[in-house]
Write the structure tokens for this entry.
Amino acid sequence: MKIITVCGSLKFKDEIMRITEKMSLQGNCMLSIVYPANPDRDSYTDEEKDMLGKMHKERIKISDAILVVNIDHYIGSATKNEIKYAKALNKEIIYYTDIADDIKL
């Protein structure tokens, strides 16, 4: 069993949720993104955004790997920073586009 933190753009929320479920059912311990309950993501204060970012980095730190959900090969700037952080910690980087056939959504 691997501990894997999911990274990717929130515009792919539905895909991320399906992928996370499938990978969990394959025996992985998936640490997911915190999804805003309010559709207006700007409703978070700067302090809350900072706290959520720090917690996501903690999830990456305790993981064996990160899963980059890069639908249509899209990787936003925040996810690029998460990849850099994971690489600095020598974490395995798994790209969804490389394993999509294995997940069989």
